[in-house]
Write a structure and sequence with these properties.
Four copies of one chain form a homotetramer. Chain A contains 14 helices and ten strands. Chain A has about 400 residues and is α/β, with parallel strands linked by helices. Chain A has one domain: Divalent-metal-dependent TIM barrel enzymes (TIM Barrel, Alpha-Beta Barrel), CATH 3.20.20.150. In chain A, helix 4 (about 115-135) links the parallel strand 3 and strand 4 (about 140). At the A-D interface, loops of A face loops of D. Chains A, B, C, D: Keywords: Cytoplasm, Isomerase, Manganese, Metal-binding, Rhamnose metabolism.
Chain lengths: ~400, ~400, ~400, ~400
C-alpha cells in the first residue's frame, strides 16, 4: 500500500545498519529467584565472541560485540581483539562492572567511603586501558549506585562524588574515545538511584564535555515514559550516544527488543530516521542489552537483530513528504495515517530479499537451526563452568 | 523523643517561611466530568485576593497570591496590586494561559501554524507587562502543548518552536524578573507533551540563561518518580525556582498538598532544609497549585499551608549531625532512624505555640470557621457568575 | 508469509463481527482544561444516530449505537429506535449517567445521603424502562463514585450501598436484559474509586447473578496491567459481557482504539478468537468509548472500527495448531513466532477485498471524505447548540 | 491532641497483636545483580528460628516464624517445632517453593508438561504433611508461574492447570488448615503472571471453598493500586487470610514495612481496626516478607515489627465516632482531619510505656544492640555456609 520510489535508498540504509550484541547475552542469566542454566552456553570470553560472530554470520548486521569487565577479563586483550577479528567481528563497547564486589554494598563511585570510591574509579580507568588494547571507542558506564532507605545517605553528596569520578574518567579518555552514560529508574537500588533518568545523565554529560553522551536503555524508565521523545530531544541536543535495546512490560524485564511493544520500537527508529541518525557515521551505537532467561540465547539474539531491522525498515518506509504536509496543515488523522501506513506494512519480504541479495539466508533463524551450530556447542561445551552474571 | 537544642532557630526558620496561594484555588474547578459549584466562591480577581488575604490572616504564612491571566484580567493591574497590598498580601507569580482559546487546539507556542505561535508568544510577553505593573518577579509558564497521536506533528520541530518562543520571552524579562518553567508528564496532551519532564525543562532553562529556572509541580510525574531527588539535583545545579505544591494518588489529581503522601512532602522539605534553601532570600517560590473540587476551598487552602508548615517543621527537626555521622559510617538503619525520628515527631504543638507567640490563633481552621468569613461570602456572593477555570 | 487454508472462515468471521459506536463519540468532548468545538457536530440524539448510521454505511461493521442518558434523553424512545432502524442501525446499550448532577458531588449510589442514593438508583431503574422501549439488551453501569481523601467516607459502607443499588437494578431487569458493570482505576475520584478494578466488578457480578457481567474499558487500568489476561480469565469464568474500546498512553486518555498500542489490541482479540467469543451469538458487546478531542469525529470512529477489524483479522490468522504444538513442547521462541507471524501480516488487502465483495468501498475513510457527508453536516448544523458532555 | 478515653482498650488491642516473621528474612538475600553476605547470618533452620525468637524476645509481638520449604527442610519437623517452642516461638505458615528447580523454567503447577505439574503439586501436598508435623495452620502458596512472551503458552489452559493443582491441594487440607493464596503483578514472569492480582486469587479461593483465603503482599501491585481498598473489600467478602508485609517505592522492592510509605501502612491498619480484624482470633496472619539486602537483618526485622505496631496504634487512636459523624454529614475536610489527627500523633511514647509495663525494654533496637546477641552470632556462625535464597 505504500509507494516506494526510493527502495534502493531504503535497502542501502538497511545495509548500512549496525547492531552490537552483548557478550553477556550469550551467557546464563536470570532473576533474583533463579538462574536457569542452558546447554551450550559459553564458558569463556572467546566462546561468547564465537557466538556473537555466529549471529553476525546469519544476520549480516551485528559486526561487533560488547564486552563486560570483569566478566570478560582476559590476560591479553589485544589477542582477544585479534581473535574476534578473525571471526569477522570487532570488539565494541567496554562495559564496566562496579556492582558485584562485596565492597559495593553501599555504592561504588558514590559510596560514602573514599577508599571504595577510589577502587571503583580505578576500575573505570582500567576499562579505558582495555579500550586502548581492543580499539574500542565506547566506554559504557552503568552504576547500580543508590540507596534503599530515606536518609541512608545524602543525595547531593552522592552527586558530587559521582561527578568527581566521571570527571576523572572523562579526562582519561583518548581523543577517539567517549563515554556512554546510562541511567536507570531503579533496581538494584530501591529508593534513590544516583543516575535515575535521562535528565541526570544529560546534565552530567553536558558538564563533562562533548565526548560524554547519553545511553538510552529502553527498559529503564517509569511506566508511561515516552522514550521516542527522549530520543528526539537528545538528538536535538547532540547528546544521544547509544541505545541499550530490550523490551519490557513492567520494569527492567530485559526481554527481546520489539517483543513487548513493537510499535514503540518503530516510533523510536522513526525518530532516528527522521534525524538521519541511522548511519554508523552519525555515531550512535545501537546495542542490545537483554537477558534470555528462558529462551534459547543465540536464536533470541538473531530474532532481536531482526526485530530492530524490521522496525527500521518500517521507519524508512514512512512517506516523509506526505507526513510533513499533513503535519503542517494540522491534519491529525491524516498525519497519523501516514505513519501507520508504514508501520502496518509487512517488511519481512523486503528484508528477506535484501538478505538474499547479500548472500545471506533470507530466514536467519531457520538457517541457524539448520547449521548445526547449536548441536555443536551443546556437545563441545558440556564440561566446564557456564558463564553467567556472577561468573 | 528528639533533642531540640536549637528550637529558637527552628522557630525562626518557620517564621520566615512563605507559601504563595493561587487565585484559581479559590474558584470553582473540577474534572472533565463535572465542575461542582460551591457557595461563596469569588466572582472577580479582587474577591480571590480577598480570600487569599484571609488565608494569610489566619496562617501568617501566605503573604502573596499568584494570578492567572486571563482568568484574572483586569483593566488596571497597578490598582489590583494596591488593592492586594491594602489587604496585606502581594501579587506573586503571573501565570500565563495559552490553552483555553480555540486557536490552541493543536498547540500554542509549538503549534504548526506560525500565526497561532505568534499569538501565544504575544500573550507571554503581555504577561511580563502585567508583571511590570504588579511588581511580580516570577513568570510561570505552563504549556499544555503536545500531540495526541504518533505522527500528528514533528517532535523535534515543536522543540525548536518552543525554544524560539522561550527565547523571545526570556529576552523581554526585566532584570529582576525570571521565568519559572513548568513541566508535566501528560494531560491534556496524551501522546507527547512538549515539556514532559524536569530534564526537558532544565535543558531549556540552561540554554535560556540564569533567570530561567525549573518549577516542580509535585503532581506532574510518572508513578514511581523520586521527586526529592529532582529537588536535590536542581538545587545542586542552581536551577530550582519554584514548587507548585499539591498531592496525588494517580495522575495530576491536584489534591491538597500532603494529603496523599505526607512522608514524601517531608522528604522534599528535608532536601530544601538540607540545602539551606527554605529562606525567601534563597529565591524559591513555594506555591500551591491545587483544585478543591469537592472540599471547601478556603479551609482546604489553610489546611494545605499548615501541611507544608508541618512537613517543614519536621525537616527542621532532623538531627543533621547525627544523620551525617550515620551516613558517613554507612549505618543504614541508624541513618534512616534519624530521619524517621523527626518525621514521627508530632510538630503540631510546636506550630501552635509559634502561632500563639505571633498573635495568631493556634488553630487556624477553627479560627476561620469562627470568624464568620464563610457565612459572609456565601451571603455576599450569592449573585453573579462564580469564577472558574473557563470564567 | 502465512498459510491461509481457511481464508473463507476468516472472512466469514470478519463479516459476522459487530462493533457498537457510542452516541457521545460524535459529540464535542475534551479535557478539564478545554473542550474544543468542531464544525458539524450533532445537536440532538437523532443527529448522533445519523452519524453512527453513516459510520455503519461505510464500514458495514457498526450496526448499533449506544445511548447515554440523559445526554440522549428524548420524549419518545420508541420513535427514536424506529428512527435508528430507518437509518439501518439499532439502539444498543443504554448508558446511565449519575455523575453530572450537583447532588452527586460525594457520590451517587454510594453517597452517604440516602436521599441521593435513592435518586441515583431511580435513574438506573429509569434506564431499564428506556431499554424496554428501545429493545436494548444491555444496561451499562459506570459509576464515578469514590472519595478524594483518606477518611472522607467509609470504604466498606460504600460497598454495601453499591451492592444494594445493584441488587435493586438487577432485580428490575427483564429476562433478556443484562447489566454490563464497568470499573475504572481513577478519575474523577482520586483516592478510592468504589469500582476500581475487574476483581471488584467481578465479585459484585457473581453475587448479582448470571445476567450481570463485567465490561472492560481498555483505558481503565493501572499502568502495566495485562488486559488480555483479564479477558482470558473472565472468558473462563463466563463473566465477560462487553468492551469499551479505546486506547491510551497514560491514564483514561480515550484515544482511538489501536492507536497507542496496536499489539495490545491484537493480543486482546487473540484471546477472543481463541475462546470462540467473536461471534455476536456469544454475547460480548464490542463497543467503542472514545473522546475525539482534537481529531475529526466521524473519520476517527471509522478508523477505530477499522483498527478493531485489522486486529481481529490478524488474530484470526494465527495458526492455532502450530501455536498449540509449540506451546505444548515448551518452545518459547517458536510459539511467540507463530503469534508474531500473524501480527506482522499486513491484513489491509484482505479487509479491502472483503469490503469490495460486500459492496463497500475498500477504503472507508476515503469514501467518507468523497461522500460529501461532512460538508453537509457542517452546513446543516451550523446553528443550534452542539452536543457535548453536559449538553 | 487526641482524646484517649479508652487508652486501656488501645493497649489491650496492641498487646494482643501478633506479627509473624519469616525464616528467610534472617538469611542472605539480594537482587539479580548481587547478594551481599552479612556476618552472623544463620546456617540452618534452627539458627533462623533462634533469630526469630530473639526478635520476639525484644518486641513481645512476634511469637511465630514462617518456614520456607525446601530452604528450611529438616529431617524431623516435630523436633524443629519443639525446638522453636523451647525458644518461645511457634512454627507459623509453611511456604512452598516451586520456583527454584530447573524443571520449573516454564512453570510449576501451570507448566505445559504434566510430569512437572505432578512434581510441583506433590511438593504442595508434602508441605501439608509438614504442617501436620509442625502444627501449622497456614499453607502459603506463591507461584512464580507465568510466561515471558506473548504466545509462549495458553493463558487459559494455565488457569485450568492452576485450578486443578489448587483443588488437589485444598482437598488434602486438614480441618484446621487453610490455604493463603498469594498474588503478584510480575517478577519473575514478565508478560503474564498466572496469579497477577487479588481478583484472580479471590476467584480461585471462592471456587475452592471457605478454607482458601487471599494473602496480600503489600509490594505486589501495580503502581497506583489502592491497597487498603483491597483490604476493606476482602474483609467484606470474608476472604482476607493474611498479609505479607513489606514496603516498596517501585516494584517488589521488599523493603522494611512502613519504610517507603508509612501513611499507607496506617491506612491499611485502619481498615483492619475498622473491621475489628486485628485480634488473632479473627484469623488474619500478619506476616513480614522482606529482604534485608543491605541493612542488618535482625535489627531491620525488629524495626519492621515496631513499624507495624506504630501504624496499628495510630489506627486504634482514630476517633471512630467523630469520623463516622463527619462522614455521614459529608464533611470532607473534617472527616479527613479526624483520620489525620490519629496519624499525626506520636505513638512512640505510648508503645514505650506498653513495653515497660510488659517487662520489655521500651527501646527494642537499643536493647538488642546492648544484648550482645549480634556479636555472639557473628562469632559463632563464622564458619559454614550462610543460608540464602537457594541455599
Amino acid at each position: 500500500m505504500i509507494d516506494l520510489p526510493d527502495l534502493a535508498q531504503v535497502k542501502a540504509a538497511l545495509r548500512a545498519q549496525r547492531i552490537e550484541t552483548p557478550s553477556w547475552g550469550y551467557a546464563n542469566s536470570g532473576t533474583r529467584f533463579k538462574v536457569f542454566p542452558q546447554a551450550g552456553v559459553p564458558r569463556s570470553p572467546e566462546e561468547k565472541i564465537a557466538d556473537a560472530a555466529t549471529v553476525h554470520r546469519f544476520t549480516g548486521a551485528a559486526p561487533s560485540v560488547a564486552l563486560h569487565i570483569p566478566w570478560d577479563k582476559v590476560e591479553d586483550y589485544g589477542a582477544l581483539a585479534r581473535y574476534a577479528r578473525g571471526l569477522g567481528v570487532a570488539i565494541g563497547a567496554i562495559n564496566t562492572n562496579v556492582f558485584q564486589d562485596n565492597d559495593y554494598r553501599l555504592g561504588s563511585v558514590t559510596n560514602p567511603d573514599p577508599v571504595i570510591r577510589r577502587k571503583a574509579t580505578d576500575h573505570l580507568l582500567e576499562a579505558i586501558s582495555i579500550m586502548d588494547l581492543t580499539g574500542s571507542r565506547d566506554l559504557k558506564l552503568w552504576f547500580s549506585d543508590g540507596i534503599n532507605y530515606p536518609g541512608q545517605d545524602d543525595i547531593r553528596d552522592r552527586q558530587d562524588r559521582l561527578a568527581a569520578a566521571l570527571r576523572q574518567t572523562y579526562d582519561r579518555l583518548g581523543e577517539d574515545q567517549r563515554i556512554l552514560l546510562e541511567y536507570k529508574l531503579f533496581e538494584p537500588a530501591f529508593y534513590v538511584t544516583d543516575l535515575p533518568d535521562w535528565g541526570t545523565s544529560y546534565a552530567h554529560c553536558v558538564e563533562l564535555g562533548e565526548r560524554a553522551t547519553v545511553c538510552i536503555d529502553t527498559g529503564h524508565h517509569a511506566q508511561g515514559t515516552n522514550i521516542e521523545f527522549i530520543v528526539a530531544f537528545l538528538l536535538r541536543q547532540n547528546k544521544l550516544g547509544a541505545f541499550d535495546f530490550n523490551s519490557r512490560f513492567y520494569a527492567d524485564d530485559d526481554l527481546m527488543v520489539g517483543a513487548a511493544d513493537p510499535f514503540q520500537l518503530f516510533r523510536i527508529m522513526n525518530e532516528i530516521v527522521r534525524a538521519d541518525a541511522l548511519d554508523p557515521a552519525y555515531g550512535i551505537n545501537f546495542m542490545l542489552d537483554q537477558c534470555h532467561n528462558i529462551e534459547a540465547k543465540i536464536p533470541a539474539i538473531i530474532r532481536s537483530v531482526m526485530n530492530v531491522q524490521e522496525a527500521t525498515a518500517k521507519a524508512l518506509l514512512v512517506d516523509r513528504d506526505a507526513l510533513r504536509e499533513a503535519q503542517q496543515e494540522g491534519k491529525v488523522l491524516e498525519a497519523n495515517a501516514v505513519l501507520m501506513d508504514a508501520y502496518n506494512t509487512d517488511v519481512r519480504p523486503l528484508l528477506a530479499e535484501l538478505r538474499a541479495e547479500d548472500g545471506l539466508d533470507p530466514d536467519p533463524i531457520a538457517a541457524y537451526h539448520r547449521s548445526g551450530y547449536q548441536q555443536q556447542i551443546e556437545a563441545e561445551r558440556a564440561e566446564g563452568r557456564q558463564a553467567g552474571w556472577g561468573a
